[in-house]
């Protein structure tokens, strides 16, 4: 708990201007479902909150033309129930439906969702110097390595951090080759969602590639027929309201029972939303059989580096991919 | 021996609850209230080196920071049950999260900010975080022994020798732990969700060295207790002291994250069980040693044998009990304390033995019935476990089960497993007092011992009063948990209904007699209110008290002093136990091995059912808790750091609605008239006992895998 200033700008330009003016310790806030939580845990200690939730017309959902475009403030629940998204892109709708609770989905925005921070227990529950964490206090060490690491990542880890990228929505977007529009002090730019996330490497506290003061303004998903044959399959410790142990976003372009192209991205197992080209290659041009699906799943984890208690994620992740491929393939194209 | 079944009746507090109108302890509005936040110890063991409070005092709004210096030294040689030290502030740190200071401020925000500015320094010491730590101290408790288990095992035809483990778990009721204290006009009033208002009154007075006569405790509806609020809590005397020092009402509501290190919890326990059966399929011996984690000074008993030793007619029983003393806060009672982990282990072992000898698990249990308490040969006041098993099997469709593990499949390819297990829990009772007043103005007030925490005790009392008296149900006020109204007794161990319902029945009987005497044969029409009005009596009061079967009169005096006044399950003439049988279907997904529980049938023998609706709700809640206890919940300890790591509801995984399938509840509903005049036994605890074993047994039936450590998770079946 520390004092902070709070403003509600009316336009994205005003918001970016306010951020630049605020200087050190400024944070954008939209739905508040992550930031307030982390403030209560004393992990985020912003001095200035720039609340973008009051910006009008910043939550449009556009489905005409050759792309889907979601403005940053669209609620998760709104995008999940959009008829075009629900019908033509189940992978997107399901990734939203299977996240959080209805109350949170009503508050959380699809833009803010991309910047959710890790749920690593040592990161969240250790403020005040109880557990070292290189994300929370750079250079302090990582308690998860050699510790209770059942929930930790097996892909993309480093010797300083194994924290899982927690999102579902970013995983689906990465599978669908989505990009984001960004507004910052130096104007607008666009980048693939996949490029938003850094690997922990030696600087796990630097999680995103946004520059200071840059704000996500929209998410753009190129339209594809593969959307119809898609799913977001999520395995977790209970039937709802839990983060993924393993998840797979899958979209297929099929020619009869042959896979022309598969898009596969993984959640719950990696330090960032994880595209799995190794699995995609196994499937390309092949007839989809249960055995091949499992082989593709296993290929995705070829480079996995499990810890003490999370080795099961390798097999579970492979089977999750295999099941997701079956579910997606069973979906009709019409 | 049947009595008219009680009618189904809505919860009398349901309408208030769904409107959010029910007042909990932390909802009491008081003028000039201050807000408090505890400062927890960062280290798991050690000594406070410095405790600077100046920075906190500079935060605008902070009124006072209480430190160990604000408390009188502990009165010697008084012991504080189940506490390592009197629950106040101390310089010696016995566990992570132990309160070291209390910041009191004009607003909650200022108190939180102030608490962050109290940054003590510590002289740290090495600690034992788990039972397996080098510094853990092993202590043996008195065993439960009858017959000769070793000799009987040696001659047994078939045996099993298995070890089961139940993890550390925390209650996590929705209501957070809170205390509000008022020091005014020479009296200390404490509002707290507690299961033992009078005990709290006595102990807090003793800690603060004041006369218990000036302390009042009010525990209005508790938002879930389950044993967490059964004894004086860590924070109560600290908040009371703050009210005395500031002269203003002080309220503390503890954040969820702190509760994991502040509250009681279910200790991790291990259960090594050897069972033997003779050639006829009768169990002849059980050799069972339990161990549990314990705090350095904790007194949570290692009492795992009360249930398993009486579940069947096993003549030779050795029940050993071991404590491992480590550096945590004291563990304590958590719903179905002892019997849940014990019957999980025991009823899985029984299932293993049934499979070993090729017996049907239901028939095997039925064949091992007993009519007496094997511990002492006394008669059982009532026992319908076999009826629970038979009726449950029939309702569940058990005859369609094929015994071979992995032999049943659902249409989607899932492995289907059907498991059964029994449960038992002692039927216990406390001394109680009650006062019933019916007024001519249309109101009725029933004041008694015991507490409401959602289990439905008020609804059960109302059922008895409304069944026996023609009074206005809409103006019936039942007052519980208030030391200014009646002496209070700990409400736990499923003895609330057993204790209070017969007392309410006695009050009804006395009231009818008093009214009849008053009317002196006159025929006066209308309900009792109208009759009193007609004869110009403003009200009529009866006062009653009641003891358990054979309970000595001194128990009433102990009740008045806020001391334990509990009897059972062994009474002079008989032993009383409640029973249940659970039948559970699980489905295990063929690929990712998710475990689902689509269907449960639970049949309970809790004597006569006074409140069918809340009773059924108790059983459903118990089954859901058992589901959580066996497939979801564990509090994690990283032994390098001590304390509990997953201290929030995101990482301490409890079940969600989507986890829970259909739960069918039935009752034998045979009154136990030896136990008391109404024929009730306890239900709230036995409801969950054995259900975890039924789940684990069902998983074995589905997969062929015996998983002996809870919680069972996806990785154990991959």
Describe the structure.
The complex is a heterodimer of chains A (334) and B (718). Chain A is 28% helix and 21% strand. By secondary structure, chain A is an alpha+beta fold. Chain A has a 5-stranded antiparallel β-sheet with strand order 4-5-8-6-7. In chain A, strand 6 and strand 7 form a beta hairpin. Chain A starts with a strand and ends with a helix. By secondary structure, chain B is α+β, with helices and mostly antiparallel strands. Chain B contains 17 helices and 28 strands. In chain B, strands 3-5-1-12-9-10-11 form a 7-stranded mixed β-sheet, sandwiched between helices. The longest helix of chain B has 24 residues, at 496-519. In chain B, 57% of the residues are buried. The interface between A and B is medium-sized, with 34 and 34 residues.
In brief:
The complex is a heterodimer of chains A (334) and B (718). Chain A has 334 residues and is an alpha+beta fold.
Summed up, the helix count of chain A is 12
Low-confidence stretches of chain A are none
Question: What is the CATH C-level name of the domain at 225-327 in chain A?
Answer: Alpha Beta
Give the second-level CATH assignment, the architecture of the domain at 225-327 in chain A. 2-Layer Sandwich
What's the story with the biggest beta sheet of chain A? 5 strands, antiparallel
Give the total of beta strands of chain B: 28
Kindly provide the name of the CATH class of the largest domain in chain B.
Alpha Beta
Could you name the ranges of chain B where pLDDT drops below 50 across 5 or more consecutive residues? none
- What structural class do you assign from the helix and strand content of chain A? alpha+beta
**Number of E-state strands of chain A:** 12
Overall form of chain A: globular
Mean pLDDT of chain B: 96
CATH topology-level name of the domain at 225-327 in chain A: Enolase-like, domain 1
The CATH fourth-level homologous superfamily of the domain at 225-327 in chain A: CO dehydrogenase flavoprotein, C-terminal domain
The biggest beta sheet of chain B, please? 7 strands, mixed
Proportion of β residues of chain A?
15-25%
Q: Tell me the domain tally of chain B.
A: 3
Order of strands in the sheet with most strands of chain B: 3-5-1-12-9-10-11
- Oligomeric state of the chains? heterodimer
Strand order of the largest sheet of chain A: 4-5-8-6-7
Chain-averaged pLDDT of chain A:
96
């Amino acid at each position: 708990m520390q004092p902070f200033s709070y403003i509600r700008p009316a336009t994205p330009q005003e918001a970016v201007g306010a951020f630049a003016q605020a200087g050190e310790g400024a944070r954008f806030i939209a739905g508040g479902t992550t930031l307030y939580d982390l403030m209560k845990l004393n992990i985020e200690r912003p001095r200035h909150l720039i609340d973008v939730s009051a910006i009008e017309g910043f939550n449009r959902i556009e489905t005409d033309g050759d792309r889907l475009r979601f403005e940053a403030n669209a609620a998760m629940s709104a995008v999940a129930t959009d008829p075009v998204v629900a019908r033509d892109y189940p992978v997107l709708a399901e990734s939203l439906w299977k996240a959080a609770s209805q109350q949170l989905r009503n508050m959380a925005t699809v833009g803010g969702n991309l910047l959710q921070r890790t749920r690593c227990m040592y990161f969240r529950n250790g403020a005040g110097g109880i557990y070292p964490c290189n994300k929370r206090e750079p250079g302090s060490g990582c308690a998860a390595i050699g510790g209770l690491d059942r929930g930790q990542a097996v892909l993309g880890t480093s010797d300083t951090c194994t924290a899982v990228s927690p999102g579902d929505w970013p995983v689906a977007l990465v599978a669908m080759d989505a990009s984001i529009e960004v507004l910052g002090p130096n104007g607008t730019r666009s980048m693939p969602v996949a490029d938003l996330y850094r690997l922990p490497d030696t600087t796990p506290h630097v999680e995103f590639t946004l520059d200071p003061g840059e704000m996500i303004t929209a998410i753009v998903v190129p339209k594809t027929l593969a959307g119809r044959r898609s799913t977001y399959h999520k395995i977790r410790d209970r039937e709802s309201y839990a983060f993924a142990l393993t998840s797979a976003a899958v979209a297929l372009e099929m020619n009869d029972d042959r896979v022309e192209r598969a898009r596969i991205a993984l959640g719950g197992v990696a330090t960032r939303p994880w595209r799995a080209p190794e699995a995609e290659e196994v499937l390309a041009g092949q007839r989809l059989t249960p055995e091949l699906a499992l082989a593709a799943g296993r290929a995705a984890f070829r480079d996995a580096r499990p810890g003490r208690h999370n080795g099961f994620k390798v097999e579970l992740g492979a089977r999750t991919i295999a099941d997701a491929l079956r579910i997606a393939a069973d979906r009709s194209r019409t | 021996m049947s009595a008219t079944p009680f009618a189904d009746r809505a919860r009398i507090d349901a309408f208030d609850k769904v409107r959010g109108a029910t007042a909990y302890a932390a909802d009491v509005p008081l003028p000039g209230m201050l807000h408090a936040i505890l400062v927890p110890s960062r280290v798991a063991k050690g000594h406070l080196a410095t405790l600077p409070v100046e920075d906190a005092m500079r935060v605008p709004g902070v009124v006072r920071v209480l430190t160990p210096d604000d408390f009188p030294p502990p009165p010697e040689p008084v012991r504080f049950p189940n506490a390592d030290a009197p629950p106040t502030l101390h310089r010696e740190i016995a566990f992570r999260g132990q309160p070291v200071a209390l910041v009191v401020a004009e607003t909650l925000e200022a108190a939180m900010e102030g608490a962050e500015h109290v940054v003590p320094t510590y002289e740290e010491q090495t600690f034992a975080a788990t039972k397996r730590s080098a510094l853990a101290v092993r202590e043996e408790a008195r065993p439960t022994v009858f017959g000769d288990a070793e000799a009987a095992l040696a001659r047994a035809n078939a045996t099993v020798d298995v070890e089961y483990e139940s993890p550390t778990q925390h209650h996590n009721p929705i209501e957070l732990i809170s205390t509000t204290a008022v020091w005014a006009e020479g009296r200390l009033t404490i509002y707290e969700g507690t299961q033992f208002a009078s005990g709290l009154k006595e102990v807090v007075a003793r800690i603060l060295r004041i006369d218990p006569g000036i302390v009042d405790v009010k525990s209005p509806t508790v938002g879930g207790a389950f044993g967490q609020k059964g004894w004086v809590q860590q924070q109560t005397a600290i908040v009371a002291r703050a009210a005395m020092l500031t002269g203003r009402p002080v309220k503390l509501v503890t954040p969820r994250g702190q509760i994991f290190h502040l509250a009681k919890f279910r200790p991790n326990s291990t259960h090594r069980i050897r069972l033997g059966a003779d050639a006829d399929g009768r169990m002849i011996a059980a050799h069972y040693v339990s161990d549990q984690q314990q705090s350095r000074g904790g007194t949570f008993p290692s009492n795992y044998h009360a249930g398993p030793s009486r579940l069947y007619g096993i003549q030779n029983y050795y029940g050993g009990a071991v404590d491992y003393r480590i550096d945590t806060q004291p563990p304590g009672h958590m719903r179905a304390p002892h019997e849940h982990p014990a019957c999980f282990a025991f009823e899985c072992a029984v299932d293993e033995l049934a499979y070993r000898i090729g017996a049907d698990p239901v028939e095997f249990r039925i064949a091992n019935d007993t009519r007496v308490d094997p511990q002492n040969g006394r008669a059982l006041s009532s026992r319908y476990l076999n009826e629970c098993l038979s009726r449950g099997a029939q309702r569940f469709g058990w005859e369609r089960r094929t015994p071979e593990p992995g032999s049943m499949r659902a249409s989607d390819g899932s492995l289907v497993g059907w498991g059964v297990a029994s449960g038992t829990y002692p039927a216990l009772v406390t001394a109680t007092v009650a006062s019933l007043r019916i007024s001519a103005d249309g109101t009725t007030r029933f004041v008694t011992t015991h507490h409401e925490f959602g289990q439905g005790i008020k609804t059960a009392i109302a059922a008895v009063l409304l069944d026996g008296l023609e009074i206005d149900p809409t103006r019936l006020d039942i007052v519980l948990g208030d030391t200014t109204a009646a002496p209070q007794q700990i409400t736990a161990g499923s003895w609330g209904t057993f204790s209070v319902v017969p007392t309410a029945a006695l009050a009804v009987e006395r009231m009818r007699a008093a009214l009849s005497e008053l009317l002196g044969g006159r025929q006066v029409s209308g309900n009792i209110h109208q009759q009193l009005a007609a004869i110009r009596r403003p009200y009529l009061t009866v006062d009653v008290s009641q003891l358990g079967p054979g309970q000595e009169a001194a128990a009433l005096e102990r009740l008045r002093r806020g001391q334990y006044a509990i009897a059972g399950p062994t009474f002079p003439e008989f032993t009383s136990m409640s029973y249940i049988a659970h039948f559970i279907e699980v489905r295990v997904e063929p690929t990712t091995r998710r475990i689902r529980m689509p269907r449960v049938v639970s049949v309970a023998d809790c004597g006569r059912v006074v409140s069918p609706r809340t009773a059924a709700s108790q059983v459903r809640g118990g089954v859901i808790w058992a589901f959580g206890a066996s497939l979801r919940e564990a509090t994690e300890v990283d032994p390098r750091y001590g304390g509990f790591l997953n201290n929030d509801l995101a990482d301490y995984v409890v079940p969600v609605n989507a986890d829970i399938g259909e739960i069918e509840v039935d009752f034998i509903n045979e009154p136990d008239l030896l136990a008391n005049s109404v024929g009730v036994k306890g239900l709230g605890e036995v409801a969950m006992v054995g259900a975890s074993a039924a789940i684990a047994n069902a998983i074995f039936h589905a997969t062929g895998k015996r998983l002996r450590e809870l919680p069972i998770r996806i990785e154990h079946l991959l």
